[in-house]
Amino acid sequence: MRFALKVLWTLVVCIVSIPVSAQEEIIPITTAENAMVLKADQKKNLSILYYGRKLGNNNEYALISQAYKQTSDYTEVADAAYTPSGSRNLLEPAITVTHADGNNSLDLRYVQHEQKDLGNGVNQLSILLKDPVYNFQVTLFYKSYYKQDVVEQWAVIRHTEKSNVTLHKYASANLHIKAKSFWLTQYHGDWAKEMQSETSRLTHGIKTLDSKLGTRANLFQPSVFMVSLDQPATEDEGTVLYGALEYSGNFKTDLELDYQNNLRIISGINNYASAYTLKPNEDFVTPGFLYTLSHNGKGSASRKLQDWARNFKVLDGKKDRLTLLNNWEATYFDFDENKLKELIKDTKKLGVDLFLLDDGWFANKYPRNGDVAGLGDWAPNRKKLPNGIGTLVKEAANNQVKFGIWIEPEMVNPKSELYEQHPDWVVKQPQRAEHYFRNQLVLDLSNPKVQDFVFKVVDDLFSQNGELAYIKWDCNAVIYNAHSAYLKNQSHFYIEYMRGLYNVLKRIRSKYPAVPMMLCSGGGGRVDYGALEYFTEFWPSDNTDPLERIFMQWEYSYFYPAITSANHVTDWGKQPVKFRTDVAMMGKLGFDIVVKHLNEKDLQYCQNAIKQYNSFKDIVWFGKQYRLANPTEGDIASMAYINEEQSKGVIFNYLVNNRYGSGSIYPVRLKGLDAAAKYRITEICLYPGTKTSIDESKTYSGEFLMTIGFNPVVNAQRTSVVLSIEKIR
Ligand code: GLA
């Protein structure tokens, strides 16, 4: 039986190619709902015939070209699967080269394709394209995840010409999509204002989303985006594509509405100041471009992506996480061993798993007592910590909590021994004035010696402190004056920097595969799926005002699962501790407060909330996330997490408007329940001394809750309400 099922499954997921005529070939890449259909025509041009809802009969894809009747001379280049430049195509290319002989033209023709079943519903299709004139080739890879409807696409560029070829552009992918109109949702931001969304109709021409910041590349513009087809998608309706480049450096995504009203999306490493000299027989491997397509609105697209991320991308995406107490906002740089020992005791008292020591613990000649000095000198500061880190790790163990530490190993303050000893390790223009971002400069990770240094920072911490259980890896500066004293070819700098960073992260992960690491970048300046292969979680923003966080976490959640979102309770904002804690519980909970400053009831609330959180965190981390009431559209925000079995869930509700009479006037419609089952709703995480305003004695069918809804009774007196929903057996 199992064997038969396996055969059936293989048949279902198999990427088949259908020879339509002797020379023409149709190659569909099918997932649960969708098909990306490629066609190699008689002249061996490889085009994108279709991307959309899949058909029951694969043979019918061949009829698509007729249905569209777009038969201008140009059609056969406008929909190219990977658009070369310098010959017939005059639209935005995916690839531009100068050959060894100085010629600028490229033509790519289909040669062959191969598909592999990688198991677990994952398939990999590779298509070899070659230039008929030059010894130049591109292999396109499509890794498709059947259940999640996700595709990762990348290219490997290679040649055997007599000498080097210059790559001027080298996108990961280009898509070609047909619809009546297209609506782009894009993001912008800055420090403490991450993930601000904007939606607009795409007009003819090219809209570019990009970064040239080098490190912290997502600070002003994240690489994630959505495109709605035909009309703006809502939470539960409409066709919407999500896209993201799996890369932590400069990226560029061009969205070109072409002369036939079709959308071309070309995404890859930003070629800004980065012409790449490719040696014969060298593989240039682009990062993956990730996309998913949903026909049931943004909510379903986000659940697909979250499921994919947990199962296939994020480090230990299906494993446990640690709750923590961080000392950054409790002490800033002002602490010593005794103060930290007290905080470790508070960690235990609060009831979280780990104490996280933040910035300020290192450097001696130029002590790290502020952000102006010491970065790069990773020896514990003898004045603050005369007995080193080890004694703190032991103190944590004595208090039955774990210990974690902050580092920012890619960076250096000009006021540091590292800068004095290795000025050539610093990214700067030799003949120009230095420019600083947060008083610091970036180390040249293209240099293998610098890679060794950064690896050693982490390796030493672990080898000297065996019990170290967590790393917060920060990255607070962008790259000004991009120049490497090590590289001969400066045009390779941005690319080699990222290769260097990933090399270090790979080395760390091969030696320390399971240690949780938070990806921080002065807030959310570096959140992407290239990095999340090495990190268990990210820091969305230094802005922890819970009201702001409701909006920010809402937007992040479209692309990243709750388990990756490190949310800390701090003193930002005017909201009471319950509100702050409840918002932080919609992800991976942490605290960054002075526990001693909490009054008795607030402390009691936090302690109880942590216990409650431990009882439902699995649902938040691994369940399905449903957005019920959008904070940008009304007085309240409401977010639900329901387990796979549809038997348990937790629903967070907040007042986001302080005007008179604001609140949950109407019931909130639930989602993701079993319509036929009966449920009971209770209020949890109540502040000490308060009683619930909801009637917990009633039971409701899933149908009722999804059709009529439930009123969480959110109002000026009850600004944050957490509900537990449970199926009655
Ligand atoms: C960045 C981080 C903060 C904190 C400081 C320390 O700003 O985002 O959380 O770690 O650095 O300097």
Protein model, in words:
This protein is an alpha+beta fold and 729 residues long. It contains 14 helices and 37 strands. Strands 6, 7, 8, 9, 12, 13, 15, 16, 20 and 21 form a 10-stranded antiparallel β-sheet that branches. An 8-stranded parallel β-sheet has the order 29-28-27-24-23-22-31-30. The longest helix is centred in the C-terminal third of the chain and has 23 residues, at 600-622. The two termini are 31 Å apart. Alpha-D-galactopyranose binds next to loops. Alpha-D-galactopyranose binds at residues 328, 358-359, 371, 406, 474, 476, 520, 522-523, 539, 542.
Radius of gyration: 27 Å
Strand content: 25-35%
Helix tally?
Answer: 14
Largest sheet: 10 strands, antiparallel
Helicity, as a percent range: 10-25%
Bound molecules: alpha-D-galactopyranose
Class by SSE composition: alpha+beta
Low-confidence stretches: 1-14
What is the CA–CA distance across the termini?
Answer: 31 Å
Average pLDDT metric: 95
Shape: globular
Strand tally, please? 37
Short synopsis of the structure:
The chain is an alpha+beta fold and 729 residues long.
